[in-house]
Structure formats: structure tokens, C-alpha cells
Amino acid sequence: MAGSTDFLQAFSSESKYFLSHPFLWKVSFSSSSGGLWDAINSTLSKNGDKWYSDVIPDELQKDGAILVARQVTLPQESSVFAPQSVPNRGGFLPGYALIERNDFLTRSFSINFIETEKDIEHGFMRPWSIALGIDGMTNFDLRADIQVQQYNNEGDKKKGFKFLDAFPTAVEGYTLSHGSDEFIEKSVTFGCKNYEPI
């Protein structure tokens, strides 16, 4: 079957048909003040909390190393609608009007980080979440832009997204056990002001 042979050949020779590695989501953090890690620890220390951050995401991306997520769940886009009735419409049904887009807390996203030798969940994500619980949203230094990028099987950037003014809203618990799992995943849910493709 010449048609199927041409199709399969295209997957191995034409870049537009290359499949992406599903686990290669490179994750990076950047804050407007540049001091997210310092903001987390200063907030925890002034409260006398025993938690502190000993993992700096930038350190996990030096010398060619990358911080990788296996899965990124993008926010849904939704709006609030309501019926708009007019008196004395007779038998006609009311129309609908758009009230507003859902807010950034409703439009949350999640990232499943693959654990490395450095425990990013206990060393960064959980302290970040606890610091937010202390200072709340008034501490703008506790927000960061999060960028995720996916690559194809030739190592070229395929697509990516940038989440603006993001912060963790939930750090998923997990069970510690002796097992045969090769990779441990840590799932973190974030809220954000907005997000955009890059």
C-alpha cells in the first residue's frame, strides 16, 4: 500500500509530523522582583515557622540540567451567563447575556513534577504554599511567572505557555512506600492572573 508507506515515511523524515515526547515539559520560574526564594524564606522566618525552602529552581537548571514535568493541565476557559428577561414577552423564552469571564482562581492549572534527587515538593513548593498562608496575596513577591515548554524528538521547541502572577493553591499529598516505581511525581495546583501561549 503505497499511501500508507508514504505516510509512515513522513513520520520519520518530515519534521512537521514528528511526535513530541510527552514527558518533556521544561518548567522555569521567574518573579518580577527576582527574589521569590528569598521572599518565601523571609516570610517563614518572621513567623517563626519550622519550614524553609532549601531548593532554588534556578539551581536545578544550571549546566544543562532541566526541571521536568510529565504533565501540565491547562486552565479551562469559561464564562458566567445569565438569562435576561424582558417584561411582557408573551410566550418567548428569555435571552442570555454574558456576565463575566471566570476569575483567575477558578482558572487554575496543575503541574506534575518528576522528582529528582532534590525534593522540589518539600524543598520549594510546600514552603511557598505555607508562606502564602502567612502573608496572603498582599505579598506580591510571593507570585511568579511560570513557563512550561515542550520539545519534539529532535530537541526543538514545539509549544509552550506562560502563566502570569502564579502561586500554588494546593500541594497534593502522596504515599511513601517501598515499591518498584521508577519515577515519583509531585502534583501542584496553581492559581494565576492569566496565561498566554509562547
Oligomer: single chain
N-end to C-end Cα span: 40 Å
What series of H and E elements makes up the topology?
A: HEHEEEEHEEEE
Using the alpha-carbon principal axes, give the shape. globular
Strand content: 35-45%
- Pick out the low-confidence regions: none
- Major sheet characteristics: 6 strands, antiparallel, barrel
Number of helices: 3
In the CATH hierarchy, the architecture is: Roll
Mean pLDDT: 79
Domain count: 1
What class would the helix/strand composition place it in? alpha+beta
Number of strands: 9
Labels describing this entry:
198 residues, alpha+beta, Pnp Oxidase, Chain A, six-stranded antiparallel beta barrel, two-stranded antiparallel sheet, 3 helices, 9 strands, globular
What this model shows, in words?
With 198 residues, the chain is an alpha+beta fold. The protein has one domain (18-197): Pnp Oxidase, Chain A. The chain has three helices and nine strands, in the order αβαββββαββββ. It is globular.
Can I get a quick summary?
By secondary structure, the chain is α+β, with helices and mostly antiparallel strands. Helices cover 20% and strands 36% of the residues.
